[in-house]
Design goal:
about 15% strand, 3 domains, Butyryl-CoA Dehydrogenase, subunit A, domain 3, alpha+beta, single chain, two-stranded antiparallel ribbon, seven-stranded mixed beta sheet, Butyryl-CoA Dehydrogenase, subunit A, domain 2, about 50% helix
Length: about 450
Amino acid sequence: MENVTPFAKKMGYNDDQIQDFGIFLESIEAIMEKADPMDWDRNEVHLKDGKVILPGNFEALLKELVVENELYSWFIPEKLGGYGYTNIFVSGVMQLLSYIDISFGIMTGISLTVMEPLVRKPTGLMENIVENFARGKNIGFVGFSEPQAGSNLQNVKSKSVLDGNDYILEGTKIWISNGGYANAGLLLTTNEVDGKADGTNVFIVENPKELVCERLEEKMGLHASPTAQLHFENLRVPKEAIVGKPGNGYRGVLERLMSMRIAVSMQGAASMYRARDLASQYAETRQQFGQPIGQFPAIKYKIDQMNIQVPRMLKFAYTAAYALDRFNKGWIPADVGATGPAAEEQAASLLPGIAMRGLAHYFASSSKTYNAEIAQDMAYDATQIFGGNGFVAENEINKILRDIRVLSIYEGTSEIHDWIISRSMAAVEMIPTLKPLAASYDEKTLYEKMLYLRFPRMENKI
């Protein structure tokens, strides 16, 4: 809670609300003490007779968390029967879960992403679906990517055609996290009118029997997380299932992607928190030449750099979550990174809506890229500290190294975010007092220097 509390107070939460959430986090931690991520990694999720089978006690813990403890109800607005906690609190849960296992964080986190657009302007149908999430009856998926539409989601070929009071959907989706296991999710399609594409639509679907899991991908890491290819034909949904306005689905996708990018940022920060802890413990106990290897200058330097880097990664993730919370409230303040008298009031008066959106995307993309890229190099060094033991699959550091490789790829590659950050700088420059988070530190860490070698345009921008 130490990372959540200062941002929660800025958002107006009182001490009792913050304390209640801290108690809830303790209950999650108690549940996750029974987790066995290495067993999940070895046995893997698999497809049997068309059904996705989760490994070990993964499913039992999932049900304990989302059904018995009603995880999702904490993040549903009070007007819909929830507790109304926001993205900074979601980040607290994602930090705890991803520290233990990113796959578990993915399984739970995507449901929160699916709910986010549903609670903004809910129809009766959407309220029912949200209520099923609150009760733990739903697990979420997001069906956007297609063979020809990854970063460029405007290029989707799946289609939806209005037929009376319903839409008929058909298409194929790939790389779908939670696919085949989850039962409620978002589908992005073209909006076909008179045989021609007229924008895109996003639909919420629940328990669609026409949605078939054709295969699960075999991956380098995240072995407990199903990544599926889904196919659907003649999937009929009511008009009320459309999220946003017909033909305007892509813009809604862009807004949704911010929370997903922040989730990936937290996966990077939390997994490196874990990698740092494992490497430090190993360096203290592993003896070579009559002393712990942590006393050798090269090893000590790496661990010292990790100790500096991990808090910076966590701050990036929480700052981005806070910025998104502010954006969802209608504006972005300067106090996410600025200094000076009346900085927040100045930001409010300077920023038109389009600039606020640009600033929100800036923080989401900066946080995601910073943590995802730095995780690659930190995981490499943590594995190196383990030496030969780090190369052996039975050691957890090996699993972490494999799991985090995707962080700089999914939810937008780092190269795409490099472009988004550059496009967002116009919004940043509208606030003269805003100082990029990484640029606010006196010295760059080893890992920051490596990031800027790969992406020189990001230096002094994030």
